[in-house]
Amino acid sequence: MSVADRLVFPDPAGLPADLALAGPVEQREYLVDGEIRLWEGPMQEVASPICVETPTGPVQRVIGSFPLFGAKEALATLEAAVRAWDNGRGPWATMSVADRIAHVEGFVHRMIARRAEVVKLLMWEIAKSRADSEKEFDRTVDYVRDTIDALKDLDRTSSRFVIQQGIIGQVRRAPLGVVLCAGPYNDPLNETFTILIPALIMGNTVVFKPPRLGVLLHRPLLEAFRDSFPPGVVNTVYGSGRETMTPLMASGKVNVFAFIGTSGAADALKKAHPQPHRLRSVLGLEAKNPAIVLPDADLDLAVRECVLGSLSFNGQRCTAIKIVFVHSRVADDFLRRLSKAVAELKVGMPWEDGVAITPLPEPGKTGYLSELVREAVRLGGRVVNEGGGTVRGTFFYPAIVYPTSPESRLYREEQFGPVVPVLPFEDLEEPIRYVVESKYGQQLSIFGTDAEVIARLIDPMVNQVCRLNINSQCQRGPDAFPFTGRKDSAEGTLSVSDALRVFTIRTLVAAKDNPLNKAIITRTVRDRLSNFVSTDFIL
């Protein structure tokens, strides 16, 4: 079967009954100040990347719509979060850790009840496979539970007093204020929650903007947010970033900017804040993660990991392998095996078992990727796998481009899609120089069997990237590991425990060690007069 024959969309009558949408999801609801309100203004249509076959070819199906806020509505939502924060005096900010944990536990129970709806919308909105959509939901639930456990551990450590140089002190972590939270479309639930949940559980109030692709899948969770948190603690904003996020930042009332997206967008939004020294930024940005295949590498292993690393969810991951350097001695063999592995990937709809390549959700993406490939070919490369770069509707069949010229955009730009640029090298200094000169510094994968060679690479490369993977693909997990980047790839560190710290600041209560102060502290603790000064041990 040719590649073109594999890029087939379903007939409208042939959709699985359990996954078919009853009709367009017209989301007019939004959450503000503890209420789910109905929007009466303009709406943005949502077109699914899953096309349907028609006599004239594949056509994208409109599956719903969501509100298009303007600056006025966005600022009104921000005011709800500001009131709930109340300069750190609000009930959520001053609540005990145990009580905040109870609220988050209530939320996760309500969230689990909406699993089927969220998974279905993940498939329809961004064409993520059913298995990966279910995994994203379940991983998010696990992340919330792990966050609760990590906070318990952190609080246990903080539940004691220290005495230094005649001063009694108790050090805990305190919230920072109002958080503007925006996640990415490729992991619209999981990555959004990796910033949203830590910000919430540590006592901040949140204005939450769902990603522009992946809005509807958050709709089933609005009631869970409303019923789990005090009024104004969680508030939602919809619309374009320029119309909503820019005025929110320009207000100066955002204390923490938590954003996963592009560095250009992040820089523009940060500049809009009138008091940048008072703004904490938590950013997950672009990456151009390389893989280096050494001449002694186990090629079967290297190919398997490079296919996973570069083409999982069509390569639409910041942690994806975005460029491969392979030693010229093994380049031909590597390319032959890589092409064979790509040809064996199943192409189809998200609900099909074992599917690996699905339609692309981003408007104009197939055209952008096609231009990258055409330019790379003009500059001396070739598409080495059969059918690579074939486009039909929102499908883009993976293209392996070799050799990729350093003059091409594909060499420099984060393609964020199913194109795999490959370059040969003779001298190991060539890929090392690429890593050093790159404006990104998230991860690197090294494939080889000589421990001495790999060890010599480790010491300098960990000063260029924040995760070095040996004979393994680039990836985010496990969530207990720090997730960050150097250069233009990140600001701040995210992981289960790191995220709790990044949304807070160390704060202490101190008193001179004398009878009066001892009596005050003793009574405060004994009678539970303060949520901050406490020796309660959370089990």
Describe this entry's structure for a reader.
The protein is an alpha/beta fold. The chain folds into 2 domains: 69-284, Aldehyde Dehydrogenase, Chain A, domain 1 (3-Layer(aba) Sandwich); 289-480, Aldehyde Dehydrogenase, Chain A, domain 2 (3-Layer(aba) Sandwich), CATH 3.40.309. The protein is built from 17 helices and 27 strands. It has a 7-stranded mixed β-sheet with strand order 17-20-21-14-13-23-24, sandwiched between helices. The chain has a 6-stranded mixed β-sheet with strand order 10-9-8-11-12-26, with helices on both faces. Helix 3 (97-112) runs antiparallel to helix 7, helix 8 packs across helix 9 (263-272) and helix 10 (299-311) crosses helix 11 (331-343). The protein is globular, with a radius of gyration of 25 Å. The mean pLDDT is 96.
- Basic shape: globular
Proportion of strand residues: 15-25%
Q: How does CATH name the architecture of the largest domain?
A: 3-Layer(aba) Sandwich
Question: Can you tell me the CATH class of the largest domain?
Answer: Alpha Beta
Secondary structure blueprint with pairings:
Layout: H1 3-6, E1 25-26, E2 29-32, E3 35-38, E4 43-54, E5 57-67, H2 71-85, H3 97-112, H4 115-126, H5 130-158, E6 162-164, E7 167-175, E8 178-182, H6 190-201, E9 205-209, H7 222-228, E10 234-236, H8 241-250, E11 256-260, H9 263-272, E12 280-284, E13 289-293, H10 299-311, E14 321-327, H11 331-343, E15 346-347, E16 355-357, H12 365-378, E17 382-383, E18 391-392, E19 395-396, E20 399-402, H13 409-412, E21 419-425, H14 429-437, E22 440-441, E23 443-447, H15 451-461, E24 467-470, E25 486-487, E26 490-491, H16 496-502, E27 504-512, H17 515-526
Parallel strand pairs: 1-5, 8-9, 8-11, 9-10, 11-12, 13-14, 13-23, 14-21, 15-16, 20-21, 23-24
Antiparallel strand pairs: 2-3, 4-5, 6-7, 7-27, 12-26, 17-20, 18-19, 22-25
Helix pairs in contact: 2-8, 3-5, 3-7, 4-5, 5-6, 8-9, 10-11
